[in-house]
Design brief:
CATH class: Alpha Beta
Radius of gyration: 17 Å
Bound molecules: ligand Z5A
Pfam family, one: Thymidylate_kin
Number of strands: 5
Keywords: ATP-binding, Kinase, Nucleotide biosynthesis, Nucleotide-binding, Transferase
InterPro entries: P-loop_NTPase (IPR027417), Thymidylate_kin-like_dom (IPR039430), Thymidylate_kin_CS (IPR018095), Thymidylate_kinase (IPR018094)
CATH architecture: 3-Layer(aba) Sandwich
EC number: 2.7.4.9
GO molecular function, one term: ATP binding
Largest sheet: 5 strands, parallel
Strand content: 5-15%
Number of domains: 1
């Protein structure tokens, strides 16, 4: 019997995560006939977590959202999603593909906003327990390219409007952490869709083979 997995896709905005999640779902379905797949995004994917998502993305001109509040809101949304959807799905043998997970908090609130890593790791220890991904796919895009893609799509939200320096720190933190993670794959997401897709296909097929799937 094929054991279901928890796959996470990470990267800066405009890296192509949303597209990659759907693409990976199709690989699992078309090549392995895996139909039970839950696609989720963070923050979001439950009624309450989607409300938190709206709050985080909104620009407030009359009050400043502190970095600690932002971190705790991200975690609140994450815990809500894990407890109500991800864990129950994994228990039932359903595959889960998540657009972002806790590495986003390390990269954005840790690297980007400068919150001490010890605090973020404490939250991880307290609330995530064994809910760690079997595989993290990091789509590496340089901030200028990623933001340009997002700008072409719509106006920027509260986080997307931060400085280029902020996103450079986020990327640096991503790369530092992902290189230490044995269960990860790095994709060069600066290239065009076809090349990115081919790289994802090649690397995920190798990984699936190693999992005896
Ligand atoms: N956040 C956080 O700070 N801490 C946390 O713990 C968590 C999240 C969990 C979520 O907003 C925000 O929350 C995010 C981080 C923060 N904020 N920022 N900034 P979101 O979900 O709206 O943002 P996102 O996760 O970055 O999604 P995105 O902007 O939609 O990016 P994406 O999913 O990686 O890309 P996409 O939707 O697949 O593609 C974006 C556009 O680029 C689209 O028009 C594509 O056609 C184009 N694209 C993608 N790849 C390519 C290539 N290879 N070539 C050409 N064009 C491309």
């Amino acid at each position: 019997m094929i054991k279901n997995k928890f796959i996470v896709v990470e990267g800066l905005e405009g890296a192509g995560k949303t597209h990659a999640c759907i693409y990976i779902k199709n690989i699992l379905y078309k090549r392995y006939n895996i139909k039970n797949i839950l696609l989720v995004r963070q923050p979001g994917s439950t009624f309450i977590a989607e409300i938190i998502r709206k709050l985080i993305k909104k620009k407030f001109y009359f009050e400043h959202l502190t970095k600690e509040t932002e971190l705790l809101l991200m975690y609140a949304a994450r815990i809500q999603l894990i407890e109500t959807k991800i864990k129950p799905a994994l228990k039932k043998g359903i595959w889960v593909i998540s657009d972002r997970h806790d590495l986003s908090s390390i990269a954005y609130q840790g690297g980007g906003l400068g919150i001490n890593k010890i605090i973020i790791n404490q939250l991880k220890l307290l609330f995530l327990h064994d809910c760690t991904p079997d595989l993290t796919i990091y789509l590496d895009v340089c901030p200028k390219i990623g933001l340009k893609r997002v700008l072409n799509r719509n106006s920027l939200d509260a986080i997307e409007s931060r400085s280029l320096e902020f996103f450079k720190r986020v990327r640096k933190t991503y790369l530092k952490n992902i290189k230490l993670d044995q269960k990860s794959i790095i994709i060069n997401a600066n290239l065009n869709f076809n090349i990115v897709n081919d790289d994802i296909t090649k690397k995920i097929l190798i990984w699936l083979k190693k999992q005896h799937i």
